[in-house]
Amino acid sequence: MGDPTTQSNYLQIASEHVSLDWFLDFETQIISGSATHHLVVKEDGVKNVVFDTSELNLLDAKIDGKSVPFDLKDKHEVMGSALHVSLPSGLKSGQYIDVTVDYKTTSECLALQWLDKEQTQGKTFPFLFSQCQPIYARAVAPLQDSPSVKITYSAKVTSIFPVLLSAIRQSPSTTGPVHDGKVVGKDLVTYSYHQPVPIPSYLIAIASGNIQYQAFPKFEDKEWTCGVWAEPELIDSAYWEFSEDTARFLAAEEKVVIPYKFGVYDLLVLPPSFPYGGMENACLSFLTPTLVTGDRSLIAVVVHELTHSWFGNGVTHANASHFWLNEGWTTYIERVLQQTLRTPAHRDFSFIIGAKSLKNTLREFEKEPKYQRLVIDFKRGEDPDTAYGRVPYEKGANLILHLERKLGGLEVFLPYVKDYVRTFIGKSITTEQWKSHLYGYWEKNGGPEKVQALDSVDWDAWFYGEGQNLPVELQYDTSLVEAVYALALQWDASRSTSAITQLKFGESDLKDFDSNQIIAFIERLQTYSPLPLTHVQHLGTLYKFTTTTNAEIRFRFYELALADAKSDSAQAFATDAVNWIVGLGSPSGLIVGRMKFCRPIFRAVFKVDQDLAVRTWESKKNAFHPVAKRLIDKDLQVN
Question: Whose CB has fewer CB within 10 Å in the chain, the N or C terminal residue?
Answer without folding.
Answer: C
